[in-house]
Amino acid sequence: MIEEQIPEVARRGLAEFNDVYCDDGYYTVAESRAILERGLEHGLKVKIHTDAYSHIGGSTLAAEMRAVSADHLNYTAPGEYALLRDAGVVGVVMPALDFAVGHARPFDARAMMDAGMTLALATDMCPGCWLESMPFVVQLACRLYRFSPAEAIRAGTLHAARSLARDDRLGSLEPGKQADIAIFPYERYEDMAYRLGRGRASMVLKSGRVVFRDAGSDA
C-alpha cells in the first residue's frame, strides 16, 4: 500500500483523500500514521475512521495530522474533543449505524458540540446499516443524541460538506454556491425531525436544474 498503491492512485489522480481505519483489529496508530504520511507526500488529504470499537489513539493522531474529518468517535475520550476542535477536524457521527448494530457505546454528540467541535452527520451506508435516507439520520440525531432540529440539519448539510472540504461551494443556500437543493413538503424545517420515517423530497435540483419532481406534489 505504501510503496505501490498510494503513489499509483495519486499518479492517476484517482483520489483526493487518503482514509485509514485506526481501531483495534485494524490499523495501529503507527501503521495509520505511516499510511497517512505517505498520502500527504503525494498530495492526498488526511481522513480517518477511528474509535468505533476501541480507543487506541486514533483521534489524537487525527488532531496531530489535522485530518479533514474523523469518523465514528464512539470511544473518543472527552479530553480529545478540544484537540479535534482546535485542529479543525470535523467529527462525522453516525446515529443510524449505532442504532442498527445496537452499539454498546453510542457517541456522545452533545458533549462534543458543547466542547466546540464541528459535527457532521452521515448514513454510513453499508451492509450493516443499509440506509439511504438522510432525513431518518436527522430524526435519529434529534431523538437519540440530543441534537436540535437546526443542529441536525446543519450537521447533515453544511458540516457534511465541510467534512469533504467542499463547504466553500456546497452545503448551504448562499450566493455563489452550487445550487444542489432538496425541497421537502413541510411548513417548517423542524418537521424534518418530527415526521418520523418520512423524508421524500418533492423536488430536487442539481446545479440549479430540476432533476426530480414528485408528480403528487404542488412544489
Percent of residues in helical segments?
25-40%
Give the full name of the CATH homologous superfamily: Metal-dependent hydrolases
| Quaternary form | single chain
Shape: globular
- How many strand units? 8
Distance linking N and C termini? 50 Å
Q: Major β-sheet, in short? A: 5 strands, parallel
Instruction: Report the CATH C-level class.
Output: Alpha Beta
As a percent range, the share of strand residues is: 15-25%
Characterise the protein shown here.
This protein is α/β, with parallel strands linked by helices and 219 residues long. Helix content is 36%, strand content 16%. The chain contains 10 helices and 8 strands. The protein has a single domain (5-174), classed as Metal-dependent hydrolases (TIM Barrel), CATH 3.20.20.140. Strand 2, helix 3 and strand 3 (69-72) form a beta-alpha-beta unit. Helix 3 (58-64) runs parallel beside helix 4 and helix 7 (134-145) crosses helix 8.
